[in-house]
Structure formats: C-alpha cells, structure tokens
Design brief:
Blueprint lengths: L1 H9 L6 H33 L6 H32 L3 H33 L5 H32 L4 H8 L5 H19 L9 H32 L3 H42 L1
Length: 283
C-alpha cells in the first residue's frame, strides 16, 4: 500500500511539507516498527517450535526473509522517513525508497506468502482442491485487506488533513495503483465468500461464512450510501478539512468494526479447521 499508493502521491506535496510529512512519518513509525518487531519475534518462535512439523527449508527460508525485511525496515527505510519533514519527498528520496521497498520488503513478502500458501495447501490436503483454494484465497486476502485498510485509515487519512488546497488535486489523482492494490483485493473475498457457503473445508460452520459475508456487505453498503457520495466524490473536486475529519470519524465508527470482524472470522475459520483435524486425529 505504501509503496504503490503513498510514495507516488507524496512527491506532489510542496506547500505544507513539514506538517504532512510529520504526520506521515509519525504514523509510519508505528506501522513499520511495531509490526516489524512482532514479525521477527513470531518468526523466531515459529521456527523454534515447529522444527519437526514443517519442512526445514520452509522454516529457514521464512526466517531469513523476515530478517531481510525487518532489517531493511528498521535500518534503512525508517531513517529515510525521519528525514522527510525537513526535506520533503524529493525525487532523490523516491529513488532511494522505491528500490529498497520493492527489493527488500515487497519481494520477500511475496516469497513468504508463497511459502504460506504451500504450507496451507499441505495442511488442507484432505480437502477437495476447489474447496481448499477458495478458502485459502479468502483467508489470505482477509489479512491483506486488513493491512491495507489500516494503512489507509491510520496513516493516509490523518496526513490528508494538512495537505491544503494547492497540492490537493495533484496529490489526489497521483495515488499510484490504488484500484489494483486496494479495491480489487478487498472486493474479491466478498464474491468468493458466496462460493465458500457451498465449497469449504470441513469444520467451518456455514454461520461463520454468513457473518463474514454480511460484514463485507455492510462495508460495501455504507461505502456506497455514505462514503462515496458524501466523501470521495466531493474530495475529487475540492480540498475540505471538514469532510476529511468526517471521513476519519465515521470510518472508525462505521467500517472499521466490520473490518475487524472480517479479520476475526477468517482466523476463526482456520481455527475450526484445526479443531476438526485434531478431533479426527484423536479419534
């Protein structure tokens, strides 16, 4: 989200550089550093506790990729972010950040996802292939969507308030691959959840899928009824601190609880599969 959407847009901030970059930097410190620490610790613990449960190459590869990604975040990208309030998002900064982010964060993340897909596929090998992969895609995209939604709500909306009128239009329409990176991955699980009602791994109650689907439906209805006509369309024409303040307020109150529920239900579905497999193993 940051690489494909934020970095291409931030280069268009020229007027209120310091307040915008201060908010972006402070929020990204939380988004980058805290998850990076949790990722490193959890990867080490996962490796240590599962040496006999998973192929060694998957564990060591995942751990090494985590070290590369976390090291890049903490020792290279974080210091660059700290300089942004003073110098702005210059072309020089962009030329440093984009290759670092692509080569040492995004590519390692993609490789880790492939490893996770391999492990999930093996874990669900007792499930028919279509049922298995419908669930895997829904599960993976639920976590991905939660991450992109959190960056949008926690990082992007707050620094919008300081951009100002002069830079707003150029910023607003230079947000990179927002459609491909944010909208499509968020919409796809909504469609696949309908399939999941009939084709899913054993152990997942149909009620879980209904809760998951209705949570998505709530997000889409509230977006169509309020957020698009009252927020997004007006912001395409003008900069308005009041509209952005309402966006921050009502996104937190209306959409974010449903997004948390999606995240929770995806985890519960996997947990129910685990319960079923454990009961079968004991039997």
């Amino acid at each position: 989200m940051t690489h494909f959407v934020d970095y291409p847009a931030l280069k268009n901030i020229h007027e209120h550089i310091q307040p915008v970059m201060n908010i972006f930097t402070n929020r990204m410190t939380v988004v980058c550093c805290i998850p990076a620490g949790f990722l490193l610790v959890s990867s080490i613990v996962f490796y240590w506790l599962n040496k006999k449960n998973f192929p060694f190459w998957t564990l060591i590869s995942s751990l090494l990729l985590t070290i590369i990604s976390v090291g890049t975040t903490l020792f290279f990208i974080y210091p660059i972010h700290q300089d942004l309030p003073a110098i702005g998002f210059t072309e020089t900064i962009q030329n440093k950040l984009l290759p670092l982010s692509l080569n040492f964060q995004i590519i390692p993340a993609i490789l880790q996802v492939l490893i996770a897909l391999f492990l999930l596929n093996n874990y669900l090998k007792d499930t028919k292939i279509i049922d298995r992969w419908v669930f895997i895609i829904v599960f993976m995209l639920s976590f991905y969507s939660m991450g992109t939604a959190f960056v949008e709500m926690f990082v992007n909306y707050p620094h919008w308030t300081s951009i100002g009128t002069n830079d707003w239009h150029s910023y607003r329409f230079s947000g990179g691959k927002f459609f491909e990176v944010f909208l499509i991955p968020n919409f796809l699980p909504f469609l696949l959840a309908i399939v999941l009602l009939w084709l899913r791994p054993k152990g997942i109650p149909k009620s879980y899928v209904w809760v998951y689907w209705f949570s998505h439906l709530w997000i889409f209805i509230s977006t169509a009824v309020y957020f698009v006509p009252k927020v997004q369309i007006p912001l395409n024409s003008i900069f308005s601190g009041d509209i952005i303040a309402d966006l921050i307020k009502y996104d937190l109150l209306v959409r974010f609880p449903a997004e948390l529920l999606l995240f929770y239900m995806a985890g519960k579905m996997l947990y129910k599969i685990g319960q079923r497999k454990l009961s079968e193993y004991k039997a």
